[in-house]
Amino acid sequence: MWIRAEDEGTILVCRIIPGARKDAIEGLREDRLVIRLCAPPVEGKANKALLKYLSERLQVAKSKIVIKSGEKTRSKVLYIGGIGPDEVKERLGLTRLP
Fold first, then answer.
1. Pairwise CA distance, residues 2 & 10, whole Å
2. What does pTM read for this prediction?
3. Domains of the chain, with CATH numbers?
4. What's the confidence (pLDDT) of residue 95?
5. What pairs with residue 66 in β-bridges?
């Protein structure tokens, strides 16, 4: 499952594609949310860009988003504190996805 509730927040399973033309959410692929980022995958730039992009889209502080696993890979598991899965889907414009 690409999104689920955990504790007081949400777990989001993502596949990151760095070096894209623009930051965007592509959709679901292999039960992961695919996110394209302009930032290159060097020196943590893509991770920083991911946190910034999601914090802006979700309207939460960057400190509320934690990379639980995948710090050095394209597949990442994120924890977003203080917001439920349904609200994450709504704020990302993904209400039609399962």
1. 10
2. 0.93
3. 3-92 (3.30.1200.10)
4. 79
5. 79
